[in-house]
């Protein structure tokens, strides 16, 4: 065996052996318990052995057309498997869907637009009768979700698509009146969707009643051909997600029945004698509720994609040496300090994702059972999910790029997965709600509460904003980071609380002053960067509050290392992103800034010995990782070389006669 | 015309008209004078009209094999054009090469490995006789440059390839003894190179004399087939640069003549009676000199790739509105504050690239005429080029991602270029010298000088380190940023000088203390993150010193705006990257940190009105940009839509019967 291979394999085996905690216990924690852990392992094995799903060719050796086809094939096969093996075992059926999501981001999204976006829209916007009608139809259709337009995304109220009610026939006429109203980026609309839920301006009696949701058939169920009046096309080449047929949709006077408007919150009631009557929604936010699960799903994706990249980078860092006598590269301080906070951060976000997802799962049941509870909590979870999506996905970008750099040149090869994760991830910071917009949405919500508290107006500080009830009290104190607080998560939570309140209160008074000579929109714009910061710190406050309160910290097998993860990530966040605010509000002295840096360095070094265990516990098998340099067994070079040698055209120069020969005759 | 299109075109025309300076004057400055400007425009027109170069299909609609072929075709055609149209006009010939580099990064690199890396290696490492021999041969070969190995990159001294001298035949036997010694990532080795310069351990009389450079034939000039003992293959799928055939090389006892070792600095002198004698190089750095132009070229690439992305993002920011009544998105404060420092930064780096390139051009002539001058200045430019490559390319990554986000979802389409730039750029922070390694190389150089100055040892503070001659003086003063210095470039230069000296001196004493109980390598590792920071700040010191001294600031047509660019970028750099150091060394008060932030906000807002002019002056025509959303005329939506509609398979679902139909029969 190659000497470097031998050393690499011995290195990773030794690391694994020396892990300070039970990797098995941690893996079960990560998967949410023993049963779920076992179901996930079983699902992995089912997928791994299925040649239509875990196909032989590296996806980066496929053409776009082939990749789209293969992904469609995977969807089709996953459904067969769920319908057969998962039939009597819902835990397994669910695990298969999740495992499929780990296998390929294109596959994941192609399933997601139907399973989640299309479905949940009907659940959230449909009446009980409509849910009953449209969900049973579901097995016979492929659904997608049409919101964004070529000319509009962040400002939904300016969408141009119109649905005009025709009282003569009790139908809606759906139209894309301009080029810029073309629905754009719609996942699965490019080649495969037969139906879409579509958001549109709602015109009744020549009056625009705002946005509502419609079910529009797109393609024939028999032939797959576009229905009359419908033009859909594939969006072509993208940065990543090459297997997903994102598409565009133009509708030209397409007629659909009245009942195809989802009518839980807004109803149009026709009459034989009078003009139709419109009953408006109780709160505009209810009309955007599908955005909430969509945003929470960004945190799930963080675990999947960033989790895989961090696993690869950690293992590579452990097995890679620049020659046999040299150190493992992860032990270079800059690599330790870059990599370990990523591992820690994933555990911190994992907890938040569970808590917020759990809250939403409870809440969306209330939408049916108990609409007033639903309406009361909606603004908070709406804002929180927006903020977490923004801050979490920005961090994900940073994490992925850090992983790529940690692997040097070899992560530039498509065969080592990270490059593909970066490309797939690209859309996440701007799609599903542009991050700049989302973080301001949260800031607006937070500012609203602080404003009211300061004005002694009645305001319910529910959910994430509970700590804002103490605004007046926090404002009275000069907060200084406790001298012995660097290893205590609570200090960081208090720091974030204090910063949110102080920045918020400052902005409230700056707003007042500036409003004297500016419009409200201008005032907002003058402080937009500061407001972005406010929103970001609010997210950290909630992120670490949730982590501080996690019940799992009581599990002794894993709690010490989880606690270290929390402290390391909190210190890292302050050091990388918040020093300016910390110093502006004099929350730390010069000496403390040095201590903070030391906390990151020493915390990273301390967790370094557990890096293999912590990432093994994420539970991604090699066939999911698809990255020879991140192999479980450390045998990286041979497998990497084999992958390259097996790629098509490895030993061919088809253009030698045509293009190289002329050069050999003479150059300038 | 679509209403949003009409508005977009009017918006950009108005911006252009209202630019505060002469765009033509700035464009000539950017191109380095009127003659060069005209040559570039002519070169653009020649390329644009050539169907083999500016081919119709969008490159992202090609397969990898097609893209590799097309790029080879472009190289071949560019050479014909240079040999014909450029024959009597060296300015034009050069402009054609540069314009080709703007058109495609794959093309650029494929030309570069032969024209620059292969050529310059012979020039820098060859004797006059060898230069004469190998350069005239050049028109009959395609050269590449083999350094990196599968198992080694940053630690060159651990490379495993061996060249063993056989005194019986006066030949070298070149061998790749292990899998990990496989030369890896070698541009053009995959399919097209016929020769390589190759760095290898040099074994004479069974003793290893370190690295030297060899010319090794790889493929038959007649048939393109691999020569006996040579195994080369294509590296397959990468993140980007899909048209470039990066490859790998394994050599098995390949024999080449003695004279194929480039022998300017190190010679092997055979003898009939005695063992061969080895004359070692005067300084190890001379053996790595090709790395200098390679690193400077990263700054050129910054102008080309990041310049294009910033042009696209700026124009899109100006024409994009979320509906007709809404603001131009670039006027949202967060967009202004993100985008304008990028524009400014490009002008600042542009100046540095010229100065450093100019210095190297002078210096490499000295290598022949005046080796002692060459040897004296080599360590400085070696370290400076390393540091600039690291800091410049890190900034480039940040800039490209910021551009992508500034364009929202539409930059996720491959047809709008930025996604491709990000993918192409990916390799730059780790390839051509890993940035983490390079910045430490510079830090080591800087620390060496500061150590000597502090110990009152004789040291020549030449080139970039001139200011370190004042180390003792700077240390004596408590530096505080001048109250009225925020708009004065000089304040920032002084700030950077002061920080370098103070951090350096602190590290010198920390080193002394730590060395008592640690090895030298461990000491370095304990402070590696701090040393990275030291190197980074040193780069900024030099970057802004060079900008401050630029003679072009006397050109009144453009100097006011250029000066604003310098101040904005300096303030932005401190705000984004250096606040922790500024505060640790108490260089700014709390109030000044706020002023600094205000300087960035107001500076960005002030330059905002010139954003179209400043990016127009970069001089990238639409056929180079290949991004409908960055079109010169603002007519973005129609062209974007046409590109998508013309992509292959836009209206096809080839897998409907096989993969969609099964779904319509029933899902779980």
UniProtKB/TrEMBL annotation, chains A, B:
Q: Which UniProt keywords apply?
A: FAD, Fatty acid metabolism, Flavoprotein, Lipid metabolism, Oxidoreductase, Peroxisome
Please state every residue range assigned to the domain named Acyl-CoA oxidase/dehydrogenase middle: 144-254
**What range(s) does the Acyl-CoA oxidase C-alpha1 domain occupy?**
288-447
GO BP terms = fatty acid beta-oxidation using acyl-CoA oxidase; lipid homeostasis
Q: Which Pfam families match?
A: ACOX, ACOX_C_alpha1, Acyl-CoA_dh_M, Acyl-CoA_ox_N
Write out the pathway annotation from the protein's UniProt entry. Lipid metabolism; peroxisomal fatty acid beta-oxidation
Compartments annotated for it: namely: Peroxisome
Family the entry assigns: Belongs to the acyl-CoA oxidase family.
Q: What is this protein called?
A: Acyl-coenzyme A oxidase
